[in-house]
Specification:
The protein is mainly alpha-helical. The chain has one domain. It is built from eight helices and six strands. The chain has a two-stranded antiparallel ribbon. Strands 2-3 form a two-stranded antiparallel sheet.
Length: 205
């Protein structure tokens, strides 16, 4: 999807990718009348919408994440397609972990959510150069992977799955509140591990 056969700026290509993925998930769930699929989609969508705040904070306040001009409009300092982009990894983590829970056990499902978060977000960070945003002024592993954000993203993936299981049958307004809590967990973890790794550990090396 990033290699579109006609000239488009990377921001528009990413918007098309995000829109296509979101419509594909929702459409499949509706056509198949897959209630748990639809519930998971909307829960991670709420989280993704709120994730604009951590991205905005990291880019505007800490200045360690850059969203350059990529041809798509911004919300603050963040490209607006990010509102739906977090759906992609979070839905994959949640759906696979749900299947593992059905086949094995809840403990193995929790472990899978942690491992999937590490793998998916780790690969995403490592391949960030393909996209339009990038980290700056932080310690990088293999030239692309920002160390400080690894644990916060694992917390994000695991807490999304864990809290979805706990509250999947609640009213939608309650799920929105829980999604906001997930965002706060991620934002707090990102802040803490940035301070710990960049200002304490790396500074003292």
């Amino acid at each position: 999807m990033l290699i579109v056969p006609f000239p488009l700026l990377i921001g528009m290509k990413l918007f098309i990718l995000v829109l296509f993925y979101n419509l594909l998930i929702l459409g499949f769930g509706v056509i198949k009348n897959h209630s748990i699929w639809i519930k998971l989609y909307f829960f991670v969508l709420f989280i993704s919408l709120f994730q604009i705040f951590p991205d905005w904070y990291l880019s505007a306040q800490l200045e360690i994440l850059v969203f350059p001009e990529d041809g798509f409009f911004k919300i603050g300092t963040v490209s607006a397609y990010m509102l739906g982009l977090w759906v992609i990894p979070l839905f994959i983590i949640g759906f696979i972990s749900l299947r593992i829970k059905e086949r094995y056990s809840i403990k193995i499902a929790y472990l899978s959510a942690i491992l999937l978060s590490l793998i998916i977000f780790g690969l995403a960070e490592q391949s960030m150069w393909v996209f339009s945003w990038y980290p700056q002024n932080v310690f990088l592993l293999f030239d692309h992977l920002a160390i400080y954000i690894i644990i916060p993203e694992i917390i994000l993936g695991f807490s999304s799955f864990y809290l979805f299981l706990k509250f999947k049958d609640n009213k939608i307004y309650f799920k929105i509140a829980i999604a906001f809590v997930v965002m706060l967990l991620y934002l707090g973890a990102a802040n803490f591990f940035y301070f710990l790794i960049e200002k304490i550990l790396v500074f003292n090396l």
